[in-house]
Each structure stands twice: as C-alpha cells, then as structure tokens.
Amino acid sequence: MQVHLLDGTYELFRMFFGAPRATAPDGREVGATRALLRSLATWLRDPSLTHVGVAFDHVVESFRNELFDGYKTGEGIDPELYAQFPLAERAAEALGIVAWPMVEFEADDALASAAAKFAGPGVQVRLCSPDKDLAQCVRGERVVGFDRRAGTMLDEDGVRAKFGVDPQSIPDYLALVGDAADGIPGIPRWGAKSAAAVLAHYRHIEHIPNDPLDWAVKVRGAKTLAGNLAYQRKEALLYRELATLRLDVPVAETLDELRWRRVDADALGALCDELGMRPPDVPPRA
Length: 286
Known about the structure:
This protein is α/β, with parallel strands linked by helices. It contains 12 helices and 6 strands. The chain folds into 2 domains: 2-160 and 246-275, 5'-nuclease (Rossmann fold, 3-Layer(aba) Sandwich), CATH 3.40.50; 163-243, DNA polymerase, domain 1 (Orthogonal Bundle), CATH 1.10.150. Helix content is 40%, strand content 11%.
C-alpha cells in the first residue's frame, strides 16, 4: 500500500508561476487554483492512488519566526498568489482529499508528522515534493521522496547521492550551508562539498571538533571552516533547529480516513462556479 502526501503550498506556487493566468467572474486572479484543481483531479484518476493527504501553509509564518527574526515570512509574496491560499485548500477538500492547513506549524511539518505516523509494515509513504527539507524524513523503503512531474523516487541512497549525507544529517547540512528559501543564512564559507564531507563522517554539528587538526577528514580551507563554526556554533545549532521538521503535528486521521473515495460534488460545483470553470470529472471508487 502507498500513501501519497502532497505539499500543497509548493504545488500552488508551481501553478502560479507556470500556469496561464485566469480571472474569476468577480475579477479575482484564480489561474493557479484552477490549474491546481485540474492537476489534482487528473492525479486522482489514477487507480493506483488510494490514500492521499495534502498539507498547506494557511499562513506563511510559524513558530520558527519566534525563534529567529530572519526566518521567512509572507513579505514579498505576490498578493494575487497569497489570496489563492484559501482557494487551494478548498479545492483539495472539494476533491475529497484530506487537507491539513497549517498555522503554528508549516506544511512540511504536517507531512513529516503524517509520514512518521503512517509508515509501517506493508505501507510506503511517498512525500510528493522536491523540497530538500523533506529529505530528512526518508527512511529505507518505508518513506521516500516522490517527484510527481518526473515520476522519480528518492530513497536513502538517493539522498546520499544528492547531498552527500544521510537523511538524518540533512538539518545539520542545511544549518551549515544555509537555505535561502527559508531565511536560514548558514555559516560563512561552508558550502555543499565541505558540509557533506564533514557531516558524512561526524553526522551532526555537535560532533565536529573545534580544532581542524582534530578533524578525521581532509577538507579544503578546514582552518577557516572550523574557526567560523567555532565562532557561530550556537547559531548553527539554532539553524539546525529551524531546519528540523517537527513530528508532533496533530494529524488526527486514521490510515483508512486517508483513502480517497469520491469528490464532494456540492462543494466542487460551488467552487468551480466561483472560479468560472467546469468541474473536472473524477469517477468515484468503491
């Protein structure tokens, strides 16, 4: 059995910047929502898609903004995109998909928590997002990354090949290298190659010696890297906390409640009228 968990925020952004613009009868820009609705409806026609959930950032800010002033906010998001966040949630729910709109947490936290909850014997969780944050959740064949567009999977070997570290070291990797999309600055001079080389051996930041002469791996510019980390080790640990996905988001649904059965015809019809489009056809399942 496969459980597909979708990053709805990523999907909406992708549609906004990749799909044609479209105007609702009331004049609002709704092209991204219309494209998302069609994309999800097409996806649901695949009979192999049995259990599915989708997480959204209901608001961009989360508990992480209280930990670090530089963490990402909704500032700078196109208002025509931001206004479609609630519509995207309604689109998923109208299609009969379990949706988790996040306020205190982020969408990735919901996906990580759901993956931890539902993965088990006979159940493979597929995290449908290219977001590098989610690579930390990959576990053997039980939890894998899945790119819907390319149809490719990312298992533990794939994470190592892509980042040079085990999934469990991804938060440490992002803390050192930084993540501009999330507002994590990283530690100066630490790049992908140096972080991968050091973390492949030490795994976590607290295990990296302050003195580069004590390092068990040879890395170019080790003296500067070690000095910068020693000077900002407290910050590095904070950045790792920011990059670590939470596993305690209250995902109340059971596995059976994630089984997709049918659309909510009334809700879908009302939403499509609002969007100025015809409802997509998605046959129900037993």
